Amino acid sequence: MKKVSISAKLKKVLIVGLSAVLMVGAFAGCGSNDKKTADKEPSETKNKVLEPVEITNVSYDPTRELYENYNKIFTEYWKNETGQDVTITQSHGGSGKQARSVLEGNEADVVTLALEQDVNELVTGGLIKDGWIKEFPKDSAPYTSTIVFLVRKDNPKGIKDWDDIVKDGVEIITPDPKTSGGARWNFLAAWGFALDKFSGDEAKAQDFLKSLYGNVTVLDSGARGSTTTFVENGQGDVLLAWENEAFLSIKEHPEDFEIVTPSISILAQPSVAIVDEVADERGTQEVAKGYLDYLYSDDAQRLEADNYYRPSNEDILKEYGDTFDLDLRLVNIEDDFGGWAKATDKFFADGAIFDQIYKQ
C-alpha cells in the first residue's frame, strides 16, 4: 500500500480550499456587481418613476376659485407622496347641465357637483357605481354651504327675511332650478321657510313660492351667471346666493353689497364622486381617489373655509365662527324633504310644483 506523506495531504487540502475560496469570491463579486447595477436602475416598485397623469374635475358654477387654489396644494401633496406629476383640468357650469355634459361624453375623472341628485343621474347612466355616497366621509360632502341674500349697500329695500322679498316692487335674481343645483337649494330653503310660516300648509307655501318667483326678473342657467347679472350688470334688488358666492362678491366689492342672513335657510351639501367608468378606462382611479380624499385633510378644510365654504370638520368649522353664522336654523334635504329623489319628483320634475308656479 502506497503511503502518502502528511505534507502531501496538507498540500492537497490547501489547493482544494483555495480553489473553493476563489470560486466563492468570484460568485460574490458577480453578485456585488449585479447589485450595484440594480441600484443604478429604477426599481419596478418603490423607485419606479411614475408617468405624469391628467384628470378632469367637472364641477358646478361657484367653485372655480376654490378648485384653482385646491389644485395647487393637491398637486404638491401628490408629488411629495408619490413622486407623480398631476395636471387637473377644471370645468364649471350649472350643476344639472354639468351632469348632463358628463352623460353626453364630457370625460370627467371626478365630479364635484352641487347636489346628490346630479351625481345619481350619473349612476343611472352607468358612469358611477351605486353606493358612491359612502365612499368618502360625511356622505361624500367634504364641505357644505347655505343660502343667503346679497343686497345692495345700505339695503335700500329693507330686506331682512323671506317675507320681504315677496313684496311688490322687489326684483329677485336667482338661477333656474331646471339647470342649476344652487337654484334648487334656493327653492327648497324658501319652501322650508314658508312651511314654517304657515304651519305646514303646503297650499299656502306654494302660493308663497309663486309670489317669490313672480318677482324674479332674470332666471340664469347657473349660479355664477346670476351673480354676474346682479353684481356686474346691476340688475335686481336681491340675489338668492350660495353663502360662499355672496362672501366672494363682498370681498371683491366691499363698498357695494351686504349679506343678509334669513331666519331659516337650508343645509346645502355639494357632493363629490369618482366617475368610475372614465377613471377605470383611463387608469386614473388611484389619483382620482386621492384627489377627493385630500379634500378632507386639515389643510384642504381650512382652504375651503378661506374660500367661504363650511368645512365638514366640526372643529375646523368652529375656528371660523367669526365668518359663518353657526346658529342659523337650517332645514335639510333628508329630514325635511325625504331625500333628493322625492324632492326632485315633487318640485323639479316636468310638470311638478316649480313648473306649476313659474311662468316665463
Give a structural overview.
This protein is an alpha/beta fold and 360 residues long. It has two domains: 53-144 and 270-319, Periplasmic binding protein-like II (D-Maltodextrin-Binding Protein, domain 2), CATH 3.40.190; 147-267 and 328-357, D-Maltodextrin-Binding Protein, domain 2 (3-Layer(aba) Sandwich), CATH 3.40.190.10. Helices cover 50% and strands 14% of the residues. It has 17 helices and 13 strands. The strands form four sheets. The protein has a five-stranded mixed β-sheet with strand order 7-6-8-5-9. It has a four-stranded mixed β-sheet with strand order 2-1-3-11, sandwiched between helices. Strands 4-12 form a two-stranded antiparallel ribbon. Strand 1, helix 2 (64-82) and strand 2 form a beta-alpha-beta unit. The longest helix is centred in the N-terminal third of the chain and has 35 residues, at 6-40. The chain is globular. It starts with 5 loop residues before the first helix and ends with a helix.
Secondary-structure blueprint:
Elements: H1 6-40, E1 53-59, H2 64-82, E2 86-91, H3 95-103, E3 110-113, H4 116-124, H5 137-140, E4 143-144, E5 147-152, H6 162-165, E6 172-173, H7 181-197, H8 202-214, E7 216-218, H9 223-232, E8 238-242, H10 243-252, E9 257-260, E10 264-266, E11 271-274, H11 276-282, H12 285-293, H13 298-306, E12 310-311, H14 314-319, E13 329-331, H15 333-337, H16 340-348, H17 353-357
Parallel strand pairs: 1-2, 1-3, 6-7, 6-8, 10-13
Antiparallel strand pairs: 3-11, 4-12, 5-8, 5-9
Helix pairs in contact: 3-4, 7-8
